[in-house]
């Protein structure tokens, strides 16, 4: 085995900090800065210091090996991209302010790639002419750019970040399904090797378009996604992707609708309290404007409307909440007392929980009045059923009905069956077996490489600091010279022996730094094994410590070297 | 040895082309496109296809190994950078239109890093507090951005390109000299391993500032630099960096200056022809405006003024040629008859070849009149001597006087002793040994990683195509199945055996492609060794061909595998 490098801390650019940085909110941000892995260069823009770069490179290597193993071909496309292809697919506009746009010296429009569907589509259009040239899976590991409104959480959500993105090209739907399955397997291997705890969750497609899509979510408090896990079956999904099934009930026994005076009850809370009924017995009607037209959204009174779901449903139309001005222009809409019965010139959509046959207490479209026994399908018509409510802990599992458990998670991977959206926009055809052009079907797949580092930090850290899984750690062993010249000499000697056997060593040979500070730093930095040359150095005895368990063992130098090179 | 991958051409994204791309001017551009290594995405913006990415990764690996070997620490800084530090050093303005500038959604100014001196300076300012933290050498391998006026020559001069940039930080000048020497040695090893023919040349510092600087130039017709090589001694320099020594001569015997009528001789050619003297006997006076003030530049009549040198001398002042309007405003300046004698209100600078004591025929500042026997230092004073002429083939070597040979070359590396320019601008001090702050001195060092690929293509190609040195080639062996099922089976079988022994294999298993096309492609692609399973495949006999020499040898399969895995 080749000589591995010995990194001496006396020469390492990595200043450890005792205190959390003032602007840090999440654990990985705090620890990666404190342990000298990363430094902020601008809002959402980060520099990787030597220790951080090593971890990043390890993640990159694992991703590359597993992508190569499924036959994906590595390429490298530019980060600065011309406007035209993104114009052709509509994403130049759709991306909005999240896209970094710039002009060159001739006034030509460019963007910094947020993802590369368009450019890969054009590349394959240039390179493949026949069905024989497909299928093909291409990937790259490259910086991506998104001008986040609120860059936060350190490298967890940066504006420049490292991503593995890949794209599959097939002529048949079955081919796409296979390319998708290959990615799913590769991702499972990658995240297992990284030592990440993760779930594969059904996902919405978001801005990508396309149909089938799953997310790889790493549970962590710092995560920005919420996923629902079924404690009974194998169901797991991003809460955004959970849709409640429409189940009509028999409402024929419900008495006729009847207005009831309900003065001073403009909110669900006041209404429920005044009538002594649970909020779930009431029907809440939220008014929004969709491209200027008023739409009412009906949901059970105890549920929150998820505006992301509403927006996704109407996209690309713009969705806004109604204003005072809108109410003023429509005196028939009585704020606080809107109901679906007798509502005119308003499109009415409702959550599937407002199924045909269900009965509700809801607004009577008259001030201070509600109506009870209002039955969906009998007393009012629902224009369209759309699941728009925020999923709650305890909601029934769509698969088995058991109450769901909700958790925060970090999205570390995402796989999409895009279908022909991009191929249609950019006219990507190849000659089919029958000699006629065939439109190509695509998949798009991403792993947040820099984000995976943050997710690993989040999941593996303890109260002492970082604690890396072996394959991604910046070194295999952290040798600590806890003493004077004798200990330093021994530490460096052991380091050389380990390195000669291919072990990656970080050695703390800093002169004038106390053993206490070195121990604290070694725990903060989080290399899995810590070898201390301390009090018994003169006898050739060292202490081997497991960073995670804290277990210690005294060994002779020979035993320690043998153990660590085994 | 681990299994190496087998890349099957039937699955490879790499369309070879028979014809040169229409927009290609230089050899590497033509061949890298034709052989399927790179594709143009926009002007000066390139995509690396699988074969190209492999070569690029090989270059990257060699650079990384040799930088690590001199103790440099790898980091990764962002490509998108805030304006402020570049404002502080003046480079936000100085870079002019070459800098890609952009704004984020809040209107904050950013740039795409052309080089990272400022950000590294700030990083070390954050990380190092004492002389004990230095010296340190940091490097990164990262995309750089320059909005070239005329992106040309394929990846030789792109607007987004991959570079290894490193920066050294020392407290003492001797430390900087040592960091510089470490880079010089590392670069020599890198370029030797890459198999590049190169010269180390004295260089001007250009926009970087600072003092000592050398370039690593790879001789190639497509190069944009011209360097002078001494056939007698070890002198080599970028012609921009050659300065002629001032050697005063004894001009006391020269008769007094005397006006001579020279009607209709407004150019050196007409003057020399009319008088029957060589152009070298005349003194040419070029007028320029430096920040609006007129400056005359005197050079021997047979020499061209190098405007880059003039601009470098006066930088950051702007230099322009004088216009009709300027002549109209200064009737004392007679176009075609300007001379240094009696010239008023004009700064006069001259090339060292116009040394004190030299005698010239030059303009008399009167229409249709020149003056002969005009002696520098006697009849006119030179305000400042500045070497401003274009170096010519045969100019004397500054070291030994032998006539220089000029060649075109590609700049593949550049090392600078920056000194304290950036540390001064950004106030980078550390605590010195005496407890007082010490200003840090810096070096800056670059290797064009993507450009090195082009330089290698330029230097190693022959009339059949690319021809890579072994360590950077996209594969070790190109196995060609020249025939039907039998040959393909044998080719794939051999490929597996080679791969199992750690040999990187590209195998041409394309069905329905003729042996002739496969041979032509194998020569175009340029893997050093080509193994053909052809006519004698049934006997277990294959042909091994050396791509460079064209030598062929028939071997049994066992012999071939043994040879290639040796």
Automatic annotation (TrEMBL), chains A, B:
Keyword terms: Aminoacyl-tRNA synthetase, ATP-binding, Cytoplasm, Ligase, Nucleotide-binding, Protein biosynthesis
TM ranges: none
InterPro entries: aa-tRNA-synt_IIb (IPR002314), aa-tRNA-synth_II (IPR006195), aa-tRNA-synth_II/BPL/LPL (IPR045864), Anticodon-bd (IPR004154), Anticodon-bd_dom_sf (IPR036621), Pro-tRNA-ligase_IIa (IPR002316), Pro-tRNA-synth_IIa_bac-type (IPR004500), Pro-tRNA-Synthase_IIa_type1 (IPR023717)
Gene Ontology MF terms in the entry: aminoacyl-tRNA deacylase activity; ATP binding; proline-tRNA ligase activity
Catalyzed reaction equations: tRNA(Pro) + L-proline + ATP = L-prolyl-tRNA(Pro) + AMP + diphosphate
Localization (cell): Cytoplasm
GO cellular component: cytosol
Gene Ontology biological process: prolyl-tRNA aminoacylation
Main location: cytoplasm
EC number, UniProt record: 6.1.1.15
Residues covered by the Aminoacyl-transfer RNA synthetases class-II family profile domain: 54-469
ATP-binding found in the keyword field: yes
Assembly behavior: Homodimer.
Family statement: Belongs to the class-II aminoacyl-tRNA synthetase family. ProS type 1 subfamily.
HAMAP family from the UniProt entry: Pro_tRNA_synth_type1
Job of this protein: Catalyzes the attachment of proline to tRNA(Pro) in a two-step reaction: proline is first activated by ATP to form Pro-AMP and then transferred to the acceptor end of tRNA(Pro). As ProRS can inadvertently accommodate and process non-cognate amino acids such as alanine and cysteine, to avoid such errors it has two additional distinct editing activities against alanine. One activity is designated as 'pretransfer' editing and involves the tRNA(Pro)-independent hydrolysis of activated Ala-AMP.
Domain writeup: Consists of three domains: the N-terminal catalytic domain, the editing domain and the C-terminal anticodon-binding domain.
Name of the protein in question: Proline--tRNA ligase
Originating gene: proS
